[in-house]
Design brief:
Helix content is 45%, strand content 16%. Strands 3-2-1-4-5-6-7 form a seven-stranded parallel beta sheet, sandwiched between helices. It is of the alpha/beta class. The model has no long low-confidence stretch (mean pLDDT 96).
């Protein structure tokens, strides 16, 4: 007997979906049959919009009218609320929410500016709060939320005080929200990816990246599709009794 995950008829929103983990998750959820909203931020270089739109075009060629790009600044409450209202207007509701949007502003605490601290907290933590708060207003009972945390929340990498604090907050928020949402049958979980081969990780100097890989028993970087598969599992009926959990996907990290 073959066990499959079928998300046909489900409406999914993936934030920060123009590249990296978000793009991989959007692709996987689309492959599983969901209608996918790909969120992207409105940046001056327009790259996120172009990338998200290209993915949407690809998805719709495979399965017509099965995906759309949608803009919102996750750090801005009004912007996120407007995005959710647009989804409700177009699709009626939301079933699956992946809070993935995130940024890096790495610097030691001594050198980190208050603006660098605040920017990361605003997107990586407050953005998840906004996604959950306004997403729940349009989510059907029995839905699922997956928040993207990080290995950094526990590892405490040098130069990531802002990022580590935000991701630790995401994982704590997940535990609280899982209890608050249980009465509606909405499950809330988090992922804690390790060192994954994304554009963001490619900005880390190679020497430092190799030292990080040396702490991974599997001796390699993770692949974005491996994180996407974990998100898909947590949103599927196969995970129907899992909530309030943070799933580590780090190759057995022993740093």
């Amino acid at each position: 007997m073959c066990v499959t995950i079928d998300l046909s008829g489900k409406i999914a929103l993936i934030t920060g979906a123009s590249r990296g983990l978000g793009a991989a998750m959007a692709r996987r959820f689309h492959e599983a049959g969901a209608f996918v909203y790909l969120n992207y931020p409105n940046l001056p270089d327009d790259e996120p919009r172009i990338a998200a739109s290209a993915l949407v075009e690809e998805f719709n060629q495979t399965r017509p009218n099965s995906a759309t790009a949608i803009c919102a600044d996750m750090s801005n409450a009004d912007s996120v609320q407007a995005m959710m209202q647009e989804i409700a207007s177009k699709s009626g509701h939301l079933d699956l929410l992946i809070n993935n949007a995130g940024i890096l502003r790495d610097r030691t605490i001594a050198k980190m500016t208050t603006a660098e601290w605040q920017a990361v907290i605003d997107v990586n933590l407050t953005g998840v709060f906004h996604g959950c708060k306004f997403g729940l207003e349009i989510m059907r009972d029995g839905g699922s939320i997956v928040n993207v945390g990080s290995l950094s929340a526990a590892a405490g990498f040098v130069g990531q005080a802002n990022y580590s604090a935000a991701k630790a907050g995401v994982q704590a928020l997940t535990r609280v929200l899982s209890r608050e949402c249980a009465k509606r049958g909405i499950r809330v979980n988090a992922l804690a990816p390790g060192v994954i081969d994304t554009e963001m990780v490619k900005t880390i100097p190679d020497e430092h990246r190799q030292r990080m890989i040396a702490n991974v028993p599997l001796r390699r970087l993770g692949e974005p599709r491996e994180i996407a598969d974990a998100a898909l599992f947590l949103c599927s009926p196969l995970a129907s009794y899992i909530t309030g959990h943070t799933l580590k996907i780090d190759g057995g990290w022993r740093g």
